[in-house]
Amino acid sequence: MALLGGNKKDSKHDGIGLFYGEGLSEQSLPRYVIPADTIDENADQRDEFIGTSTVGSSEACMLGGMAALFRWKQQARNLGLDMSKRPNMIISSAYQVVWEKFGVYWDIELRKVTVTKECLALDPDKAIALIDDYTICVVGIMVLTYTGRYDDIKALDAAITTYDKTSKVKVYIHVDAASGSLYTPFMEAELEWDFHLDNVKSINTSGHKYGLVYPGVGWVVWKDKAWLSIFNVQPFSSSLGP
Ligand SMILES: *Cc1c(COP(=O)(O)O)cnc(C)c1O
Fold first, then answer.
1. Residues with beta carbon inside 6 Å of ligand 1?
2. Which residue windows are transmembrane per the record (predicted)?
3. Which of 224, 211, 168 is nearest to 45 (CA)?
4. What integer pLDDT is reported at residue 51 of this predicted model?
């Protein structure tokens, strides 16, 4: 496994690295998307982060979406919402087809913010207007499949912080950075789109989009184990549960 990006404390973006291969270790996760200046070398912070390799972003998006659904269900049950109602997810209309599959497989309504000539990415205000208590997450995309633009994740994050101040159900962001995360940290390092932002709780990326990678490979990472329903499977005992 190789790690690019380093871990210097003097730059906000130096903590962003890039991992290769299937050997994704817990230890490498914080270095990937967590600002280096927030990593305390002496603390065992790596326990907070979790992720997995996948066969590509399609699988990674599914896992990110499922985690958001289960997290939403937990909140919704605690608040006594009507669980027979269909949950929804907010996303730009220029999404990649995996999100449509996710909606079909898990019976989630995709509430699409239509991209326009004037705004070729997700308009954060329009996204907020579509949110309700049945929203499992808002998906921000980098890069949008049909327009080649980035969603403005920073503006979306700010809008959601405002929304969450008065909302019953708190809404968070999954970033589908299938191709963007392997480009942006190096070419547009000033852009804020990852776990630096409060409401970004999970990110996926693909490892096979720039050539020289033969197998399908991708990853999904969560900012904290709390954002994932974790099953502790012990095959020969009765312990199976979060
Ligand atoms: C390519 C892509 C996917 C699917 O990724 P695969 O690695 O091909 O499975 C999902 N979302 C976006 C934005 C993409 O560009």
1. 56-58, 61, 96, 98, 141, 145, 176, 178-179, 206, 218
2. none
3. 224
4. 87
